[in-house]
């Protein structure tokens, strides 16, 4: 079979590029408003600005894992590849955002609390989530058969999500018994607008990243199908 | 219908238990490893007996986790030889019976290991376990049910992959953190006489964990075992 007869590679939807540019510009503007538009915090000074990346990253990471859960349920119900690819894309972006949350939290914690790491319930829960989704991605990486990978990782995605409230409860109780450090104070109204804008900026970037990753996964799959076809027919590989 | 499934469950559990009883290879190795880990913790945290007693709850549960995790993959590995798993799947009836059967066999295995491990820990660290047999037994049972449930579930996947030795703990341990926290706190509270009445709250968390993951992995097993 020649390449002209093979299925065409998936085409990138036209909204991706302009959406990505708009998301990036919105992100820059939201960061600028956060940085120049709000006064330095009384105690923390400019250190507080890290909140505009740290907090939105954490929120959107949580949204990402909700998407993984929803897409995993849909996959087991409908058995359509697109739900599996959507779950995988959201998990990858979510894991990066969780890693970012941890790194930024640590950078903020050092001058504020005097330590790089503290067993704060939210920080600890985030770290556990990070590990759970790393293991989700590892399972995907080690499972070669596509259909099996989709089924297996869907169950892991669902169980991992069910664990989130249990993890949070357990860590919080654990902390109240041991009582070492309190959580940082709530956010003043002055900072709320900039925080909200940045949350939306992260949401838009998240959508762009997931859509791009999803498209890439489809292209990868189409190429894989062509390679198999070439191997079976002994023909040249048209990639 | 329930009676038939119960017999299938019993048959699978009995088959796994018999295979283990006749070879004993795995049980002996896991028990010795558990004793060895307890001894190593003694060297790492000792020799002051107070320090060891303070850490005993955590030490016991980490030993259970590290030694117990070695038993789950074997539960499926023996099915992979000679296409035994395919035969098992061809039998009529609910496939979730396979999960429950293997779960029971693994539960018996880990509980037996613990019955040797706990007196060993009491012996090495001078723990008053004889005074708290009932509450301690309840904590151990609740923690072990959750541990074995997820272990049996994830091993159904990990045992069929190349990197099974490292993949199973990688999948399992992050999920077990709430269980570890609750089991360690409850065990430490019981061993200290439970003056604050903390053990009850942690045991309720263990019950919640067990119920959530028993139901979830029971329902999800169908998707994992096929193919």
Q: Any overview of this molecule?
A:
The complex is a heterodimer of chains A (239) and B (227). By secondary structure, chain A is mainly alpha-helical. Chain A is built from 6 helices and no strands. Chain A has one domain (16-38, 45-182, 189-233): Four Helix Bundle (Hemerythrin (Met), subunit A). In chain A, helix 1 (16-36) runs antiparallel to helix 6, helix 2 (51-78) packs across helix 5 (146-178) and helix 3 packs parallel to helix 5. The radius of gyration of chain A is 21 Å and the shape is globular. The two termini of chain A are 14 Å apart. Chain B is globular. The longest helix of chain B is centred in the N-terminal third of the chain and has 32 residues, at 49-80. In chain B, helix 1 (2-23) crosses helix 5 and helix 6 (133-158) packs parallel to helix 8. The chains are: A mainly alpha (239), B mainly alpha (227).
Average of pLDDT of chain A? 84
Average pLDDT of chain B works out at: 88
Query: What is the CATH level 1 assignment of chain A?
Result: Mainly Alpha
How many strands, which pairing sense, and closed or not: the largest β-sheet of chain A?
none
Q: Can you write the helix and strand succession of chain B as a string?
A: HHHHHHHH
Helix/strand order of chain A = HHHHHH
What's the number of domains of chain B? 1
Distance between the termini of chain A: 14 Å
Tally of DSSP β-strands of chain B: 0
Rg of chain A over CA atoms, rounded to whole Å, is: 21 Å
Unreliable runs of chain A, pLDDT <50, ≥5 residues? 180-185
Q: Helices and strands of chain A: which structural class?
A: mainly alpha
